[in-house]
Amino acid sequence: MGRLSKLLIPGVDKKLLVRDAVKTMPELTRRRFITAGTSLGALTLLTGCDVVDSSSAEELLKKVSKFNDAVQAWMFNPDALAPTFPESMITKPFPFNAYYDLDDAPEIAGADWKLEVRGLVESKKSWTLDELYKLPQVKQVTRHICVEGWSAIGSWTGTPLRDFLKLVGADTRAKYVWFQCADKDGYNSPLDMRTALHPQTQMTFKFGDEILPRAYGFPMKIRVPTKLGFKNPKYVLSMEVTNDYKGGYWEDQGYNSFSGS
User: Three-state SS across the chain?
Assistant: First the structure.
């Protein structure tokens, strides 16, 4: 442990070193890692604490995840843009991605849907889809990067989230914008405010110049090309500007909240 200790940044807890690498693995691989005796031994060797079963490994890895979130947030450059691509490079067909089958994706009636706006904003009015469609929109052709290891390029059109936050008088000194979605099991996800204000973070209404299909999040998804795919919530029902960390569907299962791509 003496050699490892010399490699650590002063003040960094040596217990907080493993989680991020594990969380980039597919779920099955991750489970095997944290339940394998040799892997538990490796965690003990790396961190200097007693990791004897999958439960203690999970607790240790949660601490690593929180540390990694702080480091990624510190390194994040709000002015650096994700790469953009020519439309000739769009992935066809663009894959459906979710933790359920397409047949189980939410079916939302656009005429009845309204976006609820809550929290630290001056205007808490709900927005109809027609009202949102009238806002200025821009197109981006960017890459979706999945935590499972695949990626795909798509064309997304919508309103920059930072423009909408300004329109509703959001307190941009707040820490998060939290999204609640219509997916099964109550999908939700927090977005740190600096990422919410990034010029490419978008309230998306179209895919490939057509109204957003059900498969990709109709009536609205949040496109965040600087984040991994699970940080791009679909079927959005509401957004809340808040200083409270409210967790998220995958975040509550141990995935990094920041999750920059």
Answer: CHHHHHHCCCCCCCCCCCHHHHHCCCHHHHHHHHHCHHHHHHHHHHHCCCCCCHHHHHHHHHHHHHHHHHHHHHHCCCCCCCCECCHHHCCCCCCCCCCCCHHHCCCCCCCCCEEEEEECECCCCCEEHHHHHCCCCEEEEEEEECCCCCEEEEEEEEEEHHHHHHHCCECCCCCEEEEEECCCCCCEEEEEHHHHCCCCCEEEEEECCEECCHHHCCCCEEECCCECHHHCCCCEEEEEEECCCCCCCCHHHCCCCCCEC
Single out the residue of 248, 177, 227, 247 nearest to residue 76, CA to CA: 227
AA letter at 3? R
pLDDT of residue 183: 94
HEC states along 78-113?
A: CCCCCCECCHHHCCCCCCCCCCCCHHHCCCCCCCCC
pLDDT digits over 52-103, tens only?
A: 444 544 454 444 444 444 444 445 466 789 999 999 999 999 999 999 999 9
Phi, psi angle pair for 158, to nearest 5°: 180, -170
43 half-sphere exposure, CB direction, 13 A CA radius: 29
Answer for the pair 143, 225: CB distance below 8 angstroms, yes or no. Answer: yes
What pLDDT shows up at residue 37? 43
Least confident of 32-41, 143-152, 171-180: 32-41
